[in-house]
Amino acid sequence: MIVVARQSVSLRRLRAGQVVTVHVSHSTLTIDLDEGPRTVQRTTDLPASGEDRTVF
């Protein structure tokens, strides 16, 4: 699981401990994964900053 701008996104246990890149737009989060990008709709309107880093 990752958390960006207080929104949780499940990435399954296969990615536990891995570092991923997340691109944040006004309405979506796009997560760069080995098999290709995964895009999810934003559920919050909070801004994301470079300091919002949580690794699970």
Q: Total number of helical segments? A: 0
Report the average pLDDT across residues.
82
**Class by helix and strand content?**
mainly beta
Number of domains: 1
Q: Strands of the largest sheet, in order across it?
A: 3-4-5
Element order, helices and strands? EEEEE
Distance between the termini: 6 Å
Major sheet summary line: 3 strands, antiparallel
Multimerization state = single chain
What proportion of the residues is helical, as a percent range? under 10%
The general outline is globular
Task: Tell me the number of strands.
Answer: 5
Low-confidence stretches at least 5 residues in length (pLDDT < 50)? Answer: none
Strand content: 35-45%
Report the radius of gyration as a whole number of Å.
Answer: 11 Å
Search tags:
39% strand; mainly beta; 5 strands; two-stranded antiparallel sheet; three-stranded antiparallel beta sheet; single chain
Explain this structure to me?
- This protein is mostly beta strands.
- The protein has one domain (2-41).
- Helix content is 0%, strand content 39%.
- The chain has no helices and five strands.
- It has strands at residues 2-4, 7-9, 21-24, 28-33, 36-41.
- Strand 4 and strand 5 (36-41) form a beta hairpin.
- 4% of the residues are buried.
